[in-house]
Amino acid sequence: MSNQSVDSKSSSTAVSRLSKLHAALLTPYDAKDKVSVRCLHRLVAHVKQQGIEGFYVGGSTGEGLLQSIEERQTIFAEVAEAAAGSALIGHVGAISTRDAQTLAKSCAALGYDAVSAIPPIYFSHKKDAVIGYYKDIIEAAGGTPLIVYNIPAMSGVTFTLDDLGRLLELPGVIGIKQTSIDMYQMEQLSRIFPGKLLLNGYDEMLLAGLVSGAKGGVGSTYNVMGARYLELAAKAKAGDIGGAAKIQSQCNAVIDELVRVSVFPGMKYLLYRQGVIETPMCRRPLVTLSSDTAGRLDEIAAELSR
Ligand code: MN9
């Protein structure tokens, strides 16, 4: 068998293993702003209890870019232990290629199913440099596949369909976490690259994403509404689009409130109120919510715990 066919076989195995809903895992801190390993384990158990079988670790929701490399490595290791048996994607994106490579090596050594990375931020790199960054990460990952994290609203990097096509054709790239409201692009990607893994990134558009060709999703709000999203995805798969849309609307009523107060601090506050984590703290400059600034979240936390 040629190397290439071995490669495409292992990549199709990874695509099918990762074709599911992954919680974008939050990072709990203690009162001194240290990563709370205890609460991290509790949060993983809480997410699994809802039926979610995949974890996206250290992304936007996990506050990865606000943490040191050592903290990010600790989180990867703790989640690998707490979520053993689940599908694991480690977000290794960083402003410097070297840091992203260090993190990719850690994930590979821990047996993560894939690594993922935002494009390099702040400097406006030419597209070739961005492609070079992804190639360097793939090399460091030593055979662990890569999922490109496309999130133009937060990264400031807009990829055209051609750019994404170039990335998907790099050996080692199995898919894209597509956090974009452009469902036309989602449909185009799924049609042109049917063997690749497209994961929907905006929870409020999960149904739209699935209908447009996503094979699963990654979501922050799956940490608290995992069972609802699983039901939504099952209904969509069975062709019950009306039923799925009803669940999407229920989820979106919660997301509206989270967006109003700020999504990640809001998610932390909900889990804190549900008794899953011990503080609602986020790493500054993200804000930490209190009952005065949490809008309707006290009510929503009670509703979700019912
Ligand atoms: O990873 C998350 N992406 C970002 C996924 O926050 C950038 C989403 O789950 C959003 O938090 C969610 C609310 O807008 O869709």
Automatic annotation (TrEMBL):
Stretch forming the signal peptide: none
Gene3D superfamilies documented for this protein: Aldolase class I
Transmembrane annotation, as ranges: none
Key word Manganese present: no
InterPro entries in UniProt: Aldolase_TIM, DapA-like, Schiff_base-form_aldolases_AS
Active site: Y149, K177
Keywords of this entry: Lyase, Schiff base
Any one GO molecular function term: N-acetylneuraminate lyase activity
Binding site for pyruvate: T61, V218
Top enzyme class: lyase
EC numbers for this chain: 4.1.3.3
One Pfam family it belongs to: DHDPS
One GO biological process term: N-acetylneuraminate catabolic process
GO cellular component: cytosol
PROSITE patterns listed in its UniProt record: DHDPS_2
Highest taxon, organism lineage: Bacteria
NCBIfam families reported in the protein's UniProt record: PRK04147.1 (NF003164)
Family from the record: Belongs to the DapA family.
Protein name as catalogued: N-acetylneuraminate lyase
